[in-house]
Design brief:
With 296 residues, this protein is of the alpha/beta class. The protein folds into 3 domains: 92 residues, Winged helix-like DNA-binding domain superfamily/Winged helix DNA-binding domain (Arc Repressor Mutant, subunit A); 76 residues, D-Maltodextrin-Binding Protein, domain 2, CATH 3.40.190.10; 95 residues, D-Maltodextrin-Binding Protein, domain 2 (3-Layer(aba) Sandwich). It is 41% helix and 24% strand. The strands form 4 sheets. Strands 5, 6, 7, 8, 11, 12 and 13 form a 7-stranded mixed beta sheet that branches. Strands 1-2 form a two-stranded antiparallel sheet. Strands 3-4 form a two-stranded antiparallel sheet. The longest helix is centred in the first third of the chain and has 25 residues. The radius of gyration is 24 Å and the shape is globular. The two termini are 43 Å apart. 26% of the residues are buried. InterPro entries: LysR_HTH_N, LysR_subst-bd, WH-like_DNA-bd_sf, WH_DNA-bd_sf. One of its GO terms (molecular function) is DNA-binding transcription factor activity. Pfam families: HTH_1, LysR_substrate. This is DNA-binding transcriptional LysR family regulator.
Length: 296
Amino acid sequence: MGSIEREGTNVVVELTDLKIFVTIAEEESITRAAERLQYVQSNVTTKLRKLERELGVPLFIRHSKGVVLTEKGVVFLQYARNILNLAQEAQQAVGETSYPSGPLAIGVVETVTCGGFIDAIAEFQTMYPEVSLSIVTGNTIELLTKVLDHQLDGALVVGDVHSDDIVSEYTVHDECMLLSQKRYPSARDLIHGKWAVSPEGCPFRAVLEKWLHSEGVPLNNIIEISSLETLLSCVKSGLASTLLPQSVISGVYSSLASYPLPAAYRVINTSLIKRKKRYTSKAFIAFKDLIEARGL
């Protein structure tokens, strides 16, 4: 069992203690943390008290509904996560095989899955059967957060990503299109028409808002939809129009009418991102190489 000692003192912080602390902080409850870790609650409480005693500061404030981090607890949480993540990376680095294998978690925005992504995944699994691949869908903000929190090895996201802790391994340009069942929609149609949009934070919604604003058209009459499939079905039925990349126009949606945007709003990037770190698994490198070779 790993531990961290502070020279000149008797303080010993076990990695297990850090894991318990982080889980309590995430669950905001000792009871729920014990259930999640499948530990006896009394053991979790004892471990927490031991950690607080060794650090010499309280990490949580107890209340009737659970716990909340103290000011010192908030500071310690970031360090605890960093230590646990580094320990996990070290274990992966020394245990890695000479060929791509082991777990690989990749995040994907839904619009990416409409192109050749699924075929690329099938080819990747055929080439590297010993890689245990997990695909997680979400919007760009959700996936970026999961990459930074070490929940994902990388993610295919849309739009610009601004973070000093993130690097882009591959970028492709896609064309944003106005999708509508209306034929050659006019400015008047834009004013009075209904729009199907993804929730706040979606890059395509942001482009739509900027474009309409430039036309003097407010984005008021909207239907907010989380599912890409439902959003496209809404457009196909004629209920609303939307703005999405040209790559989604395939299969049952190939009949959707699409119209180009002004040049200033036409191009959007899709990027494969990962954390800046010393260790990158062979499985991730193989995935990146395949995506670069095939395209999306």
